[in-house]
Amino acid sequence: xxxxxxxxxxxxxxxxxxxxxxxxxxxxxxxxxxxxxxxxxxxxxxxxxxxxxxxxxxxxxxxxxxxxxxxxxxxxxxxxxxxxxxxxxxxxxxxxxxxxxxxxxxxxxxxxxxxxxxxxxxxxxxxxxxxxxxxxxxxxxxxxxxxxxxxxxxxxxxxxxxxxxxxxxxxxxxxxxxxxxxxxxxxxxxxxxxxxxxxxxxxxxxxxxxxxxxxxxxxxxxxxxxxxxxxxxxxxxxxxxxxxxxxxxxxxxxxxxxxxxxxxxxxxxxxxxxxxxxxxxxxxxxxxxxxxxxxxxxxxxxxxxxxxxxxxxxxxxxxxxxxxxxxxxxxxxxxxxxxxxxxxxxxxxxxxxxxxxxxxxxxxxxxxxxxxxxxxxxxxxxxxxxxxxxxxxxxxxxxxxxxxxxxxxxxxxxxxxxxxxxxxxxxxxxxxxxxxxxxxxxxxxxxxxxxxxxxxxxxxxxxxxxxx
Length: 468
Fold this sequence. Notes:
The chain is an alpha/beta fold. The protein is 32% helix and 23% strand. The protein is built from 13 helices and 19 strands. The chain has helices spanning 14-17, 38-46, 89-104, 120-132, 146-151, 174-184, 212-220, 266-281, 297-308, 325-338, 361-372, 378-391, 427-441, and strands at residues 2-5, 8-11, 27-31, 64-70, 73-79, 107-113, 136-141, 164-165, 200-205, 238-244, 247-253, 284-290, 312-318, 346-349, 404-411, 416-421, 449-454, 456-458, 464-466. It has a six-stranded mixed sheet, with helices on both faces. It has a six-stranded mixed sheet with strand order 10-11-9-12-13-14, with helices on both faces. β1 (2-5) and β2 (8-11) form a beta hairpin. The protein starts with a strand and ends with a strand. The model is unreliable at 1-23, 56-61, 189-195, 224-236 and 462-468 (pLDDT under 50).
């Protein structure tokens, strides 16, 4: 089945949508030198604009997996950064990520710019691919017309067999390429599993260079994400299954956010959208702050994104190995001042670099998620609320004091409460109820939503009229 997405086609399999469990999916790695259109091709294969694309080399840095389907078969396609021989510094780390993707793949798509032809870098990449001994499909990208398709035949000279001329941007030849991928993939066995849920999803968020990728690498035990002192190394969200505290978690490393989404441009704009989507898809967010630096306005915005998304929250003050006694004194003052509105957030002091206190993250995540999913029985909630209101009634306003008649918990994840009252409540009294609710029932590490429904007054003619 297909669904048009503004010129793009999303591929769907009715059996997979029906929830039939499957075994480990085969993996397709997309590699090539910088700026040959790898991320555009990944978007074409997965049927949606998800990988960040821009007309400059080096936008993709980590290896980023996406789920894909074709002709009823599911597989994983891995986008990689540009591979270059003899790369230095960050480029070398990016190339190493691409080589790691090749090592773990079942099939490799080697992408070449058909309008340029084979280059020295492409020929060096062929040697690397031959050493991997993996099946390789040669893709001549940017074949937007028949003339370029004819020129793509010259790519036979690379010695990888028949080149597949494709226009990732317009879709020309993509069906033939996907058929070739299906022929090259190993059969994935069907495995029936009975699990109540998959790994809990954790988004690692924060402004640039606070150590998100370093923390991910610490838990994964490998250089899973490119780490560089230059801010903005991560662009795409990077998903990894890692074991923390004896439990498997799905960690999503996201791009560092410098600006508001509305003020960002180019790569930053799309990275901001991906990060916002990663927070929405997560159950709990770990917001990393640089403990050695002042809590910034951007830190505050990121925390607001998580709270407004209704996600459980753990604040990790990273780089604690760089904090001296003076900085600790001022940091305590900043926390009291800047984080006053979210005193319920769980806070940790850790160092991704040295491993200090990273073992405390799993218990913090479990506590935040348990609070996020806690439900209070209606009878218990109202018994507590009645005692609270009797002890501390609402202040009198205009000769009257609104009363809370009844309360119910409307939902969890995050906890949502509805108060039925005789009239609107002061914002201060609503905050008082929330504070007392947390003191009584916990709710550490989760936002709480409280809405007020004033009782309707019956006016002349028996018609209801909302009070206030």
